[in-house]
Amino acid sequence: MAKLSNINGRFAVEDDGAIQFNGQAGTSGYVLESRGASSPPVWTDRDTGNVTGTGTAGRVAYWTSASNISSDGAFRFDGTNVAIGGAIVASRKLAIYNTNADNELEFIGADYTNIYSNTDSTMAVEVIGDGALRLATKGGNLTIVTGGSSTFSGDVGIGATGLYSTARALNLPGKGISFKNDLSGSDNNWSYIYNTATLSSSNLVFATGQSLTALTLAHNGDASFTGDVGIGISPNQNFHIFKSDATALIQASNTSGTAQLQFIPRDASNVASLQSIKGVDSSLTFLTGGNSGNSYVPTERMRIDSSGNVRIGTEQTLFNGNSILQIARGDSPSYIQFISGNLQEQGILFGDPEDTVEGSIRYVHNGDYMWF
């Protein structure tokens, strides 16, 4: 047994041997552990709480048992960058290698889990409950909810830079987008919206599987449609309106402006001519005779004015204000011709709304005579 001496109020071991303290001789390899001022010290195994093991430089150590650690796992850290499942990438703070089909990155938390948020809250990645993920920025939020539906509160630019990246709510700098229904079948199940832009123009095309150029909106505002148009109905004509009291309106926007419908039929020799019905001032006019020789500018042939007077012919300036019906052809003969069936009469009857016919001019075919 070792001898203890009191030197300056402290114990010292004067020779070899086990130190017995508080009635305990101790055990080889143990250390004397203080338990505080009010409790006597005790002997403690020096290896208790210590861990041992080997590993690889640059890898993060982990417990392989209750008393052993290793760094041979897939987690690597070089003091700045982290890698899981592969080598450290100097340009990536976190690199995750997915070598198996069932590998995944999963965030489990409360209804609102902030995965990432920078210091000034200009960007954040959040789990907002029930499987929903929100990517939040100062410009807008993208929310992806259960079932795959998505909402976005700001503008979207896909592959776009510069002026037009934020000029529109959705910017697709590629050629276009396509849609397909859930039915099986041919390409008729597809619909398309695409751009036919060139260096000098840009046209937007809406198309279906049956027609790849159904509706085209040109850069100058013109629109063209290759199929039939139905309003309120599936059309059985080129243009078909179906509605109670259906109305089509053509309205001029400027002073002394006209409004018209034009027709270009072709004759048996495939020669085109232009006719039109035109609203001029408060009158309705009918024009014919437009052809390649006069640059397809038709001539007025009949006019119905706002008082109900009718002028027929080419000399509209000779109109007599007292005439309800005027037929004028300038230096050419003017006729009114009545043609009826065999043995039938033709004529002009005179009267007023209160009385029966008071007078007439008739041609009686049976006998070939005029009757006044």
Major sheet:
6 strands, mixed
Shape annotation: rod-shaped
> Low-confidence runs (pLDDT<50, min 5 residues)?
none
Structural class: mainly beta
- pLDDT average, as an integer? 75
Proportion of residues in β-strands: 35-45%
Q: Tell me the Rg in angstroms.
A: 49 Å
Percentage of residues in helical conformation: under 10%
Number of strands: 32
**What is the overall number of helices?**
0
| Spatial gap, N to C terminus | 167 Å
Read across the widest sheet, the strand sequence of neighbours is 24-25-26-27-28-29
Q: Briefly, what is this?
A:
By secondary structure, the chain is mainly β.
How would you explain this protein's 3D organization?
The strands form ten sheets. A six-stranded mixed beta sheet has the order 24-25-26-27-28-29, with no helix packed on it. A five-stranded antiparallel beta sheet has the order 10-11-12-13-14, with no helix packed on it. A hairpin with a 5-residue loop joins strand 13 (141-144) and strand 14. The model has no long low-confidence stretch (mean pLDDT 75). The chain is rod-shaped, with a radius of gyration of 49 Å. The protein contains no helices and 32 strands. Among the domains are: 4-45, no CATH class; 106-154, no CATH class; 160-248, no CATH class. The chain has strands spanning 4-7, 10-13, 30-33, 42-45, 62-65, 68-70, 75-77, 82-84, 94-96, 113-117, 123-129, 132-137, 141-144, 150-152, 156-157, 170-171, 176-180, 190-195, 204-208, 211-217, 223-225, 229-231, 239-241, 259-263, 274-280, 283-290, 299-304, 310-313, 325-328, 346-350, 359-364, 369-371. The protein has 372 residues and is an all-beta fold. Helix content is 0%, strand content 38%.
